[in-house]
Each structure stands twice: as structure tokens, then as C-alpha cells.
Input
Amino acid sequence: MDIEADRATGDVSADDTADTGNDTGGAAAKTADAGQGAADKGATDAGKTTDAAGKAAETGKTPDASTDKSTPKPGMTDVFGDNWRDQIASGLPADQQDKAKKFLAARQSPYDVLRTGMAADQKISELMRDRVRIPTGDGKDDPKEVDLYRKARGVPSEPKDYKVAVPEEFGQLTSLDEGLRDEFLGGAHKLNWGQKDVDYAIQTHFAIQRTLAAQTAKRALESSQRAQDDLRVEFGKEYRGNVELVNRMFAEGLARHGMEDGDERLNFFSKRFADGTAVGEHPAFVKMMVEIARERADSGALLMGESSDGGGQDLDKREKEIMAMMHSNPKEYQSPEIQKELQNIIANQNRRKGKR
Output
């Protein structure tokens, strides 16, 4: 039925009107249903929102859309790809790639690689904070870096600023010792030795000197004992008299030529050979000097008159007095006068005994 056409001609029946009302009422009913559904959905969504807000209020946090499981979060493979390790390793020289892949295999992501590198860089910075560059000594070193290195090592500004402690047992340094010391310190400064290095070197030097001195003293004692034993066998009972005769002859002769100090003469005869034997104790030297002293005694050059009693007792007594003087008054004992007197006494005793 065409309602609009009938209306245009005015030929509309009651049935048509009723049908139209029915159609209109059905549409209205659908519209009402649709509105009710929308209202129900809105109420449901509002309820969800209210619940979310309530939970947020309880926890003190604002809802974050990123925590919603329904929202996908990009993974490492989405950003870098599954083969990010190979990509990084391929950027290195071929001989380093295998090592790089092993390193990257222990990392979960490029971010782990970055964190590892940053931690290593920080550690290196901490280790290098107090480090200084070691001078090469090739003349191309930066003076500032050399100064920093010397300061860190305790190197003084000048060689003369080193402290040198000489043990008391070694006494004062001679001019030769001082020259050697200055030469040593100059070399130490050139090598950038610190004070501790110099201290160690000096302590080692004197420790070696102590060892050598102890060994020399031991050899000297053994050599002196051997020399005395040899001369005692050679001279028998005349050993002491002959040795004193030689000592007195040298004392007089050296004093006459300017060596008047007894300590100086003692030092002269104490010079030792490599085996530790002193010059004044060497058997061959002493035997030769005894012969010379006896020849001088026979010629009368060293003779003095005996006592009036002719027994020689005064000579023996005087000899004992002079020998005791060696300990009671060493300075007088070493005087030329006493030495000459003792030499003459011994020469006369030998002459009296018929010794030549």
C-alpha cells in the first residue's frame, strides 16, 4: 500500500492509518531499547572507572595505562631486532668478532652492554685518578708531567736535597767519599729515584761494607796467627826481641823522615795484602828487616853502653820498663827517643848473647 500516494489523492483509509501507527510505534520502541542499552553500558563503564579510582585512592597511585596488560609493550627485539649481538659484533675487526660474541652472549640486551661499559669506565677513572705518567727520559717528556711524577715518587728538586745517613761506625766521609756520594746522588736524581730508593741503596752499601770488613778481619786474624807461628819457629826465643828490633828501627827511621806520629806508622804497617796479611807481619818482610837491623847493630849504629856491672841486668830492666810504657803511656812509647833507646837495648842484648 502506498500511503503517500493515497494522501496525495486524499484516498486514505482507516486501516492505512492504523498500519502507519503501528509502524511508528515499533520504531519508537526500538529507539527506546537502544537508549536503554546505551544507558546500561555507560553505567557499567562508569562503575569500572569508579572502581579503578577507588583502588588508586587506596594505593596512592594514579592508574597508568602502560601497566595495563591489554596494552602491548615493545620488547628488545622490537627495537634492536633478534640479531642485535651479531650486528654489534660485525662492526668490529674479524679477529675480534668471536671474542665480542662471547662477551655479548652474557648480556641480556644492549642496555646491559651499555651499563657494563659505563661501570668499567668509572672504575678505570677511579684507578687513574691518582696515577701519573712515567717519564721516558728521551727528552720529549712534558716538564709538568715529570714534576708530578717526581712529586709522587718523593724525588727532591736537586740531588743535594737527598738525605744521606752514614752509620757512626764508618766515621766521617773523606773528600773521596764525598765525591763518590755526590756522583751517586746525581745519577739517582737523573733516574728519578725517590728518597726511599736512595735510603735502600745506601743501607745496602753499608751492609755490604760490614760484611766485607768482618771477612777481612777474620782473614787478618788467621793470617796474623800463621805469620807469628812461622816467625816463632824461625827465631825461637829471640822472636820477641827481633820483632821489637825491627819495630824500633822503623820507628826511628820513619820519624827521621817525617812520619813521627805513632798511629800513622801503625797504619802504614797495617796495610794488608789480598790474603789478609799485614805488611808489618809478613814473614819474608820481617826476616829481611831483622837481618838489616842486626847488621846495623853489629856496625855500632844502634849500640849503647851496658851497665857498669857488665851483667846486662840494667838493660833487661829498662827493656821491661819501656815495654810496660806501651800500655801505660803509648804516646811516649812511640816517641823517637824511647824507640831508639829500646832498639839499642835489644841490639846490645843480641850482641851480648852472640847473636848475629
